Amino acid sequence: MKILVTGANGQLGSELRTLEDNYPQLHFIFTDVDELDITNEQEVKAYLTKHKPHYIVNCAAYTAVDKAEGDEGKAYKLNALAPQYLASGARALGSRIIHISTDYVFDGKAYTPYTETSLTSPNSVYGHTKLKGEEFVLQSGVGMVIRTAWLYSSFGKNFVKTIASKGKETDSLRVVFDQVGSPTWANDLTKAIVAIVCQGSKQFIPEVFHFSNEGVCSWYDLAVETISYYGFNCKVSAIRSEEYPTPAERPPYSVLDKSKIKNAYGVSVPHWRESLMKCLSNIVP
Q: Which domains does the chain have, with CATH numbers?
């Protein structure tokens, strides 16, 4: 079975590479912009026609949340049009696409975990463009959307790696405590994606699903756990979001309900603290 992975040099794509040897029955084709420009519709069509993947896992995205506020055109191309081109190509081939989306499609004003049917209302350009990408993928009839949140790994740039690096270099950090969610180790998400693929096209449900690790914490809590793991002599102070203003508004609450994906596919969802410890064992600040 051929699996085309876009955005292969990012966190999810890199984690998928680490799983490749465990699934000899799957033939992964890893691409990033140098191999395939997914914002070019004709290039996408030609590439898919040539390689004929059974599944496309779209890990590519414009994820510079604050930069997107002043770069809406580029964010829209990568977060909305590219998924549309991939989904359209998958439909033409009779293939399936799994598209990764985000908690930023919600405004964060809820007090209970968001389900797949919760009302979407993004606060940012990033969130708006990702929501549009979801719509295009679902309209194809061959696409599954998996929303995730607070993604981190030992690859690429992310909050956990930044905190580990700064914690080693400084004696104090200020981190917001009034933004609450569930962190997601990219490795756990990739295992869920592969589990869905391995169940075959007959079990493929072209709908929205949520996946993040279990449990709830703030960015402050996540930073404290990270610093504690390494034993750094760094004090972490809790601050309000208004003390750390950003161009893009963040959802203050973005806990995702994972019941649907667990019931439909039987995937394992570890607690965020358990997964964080495993990830940090692979990160040398």
A: 2-157+183-214+253-270 (3.40.50.720)
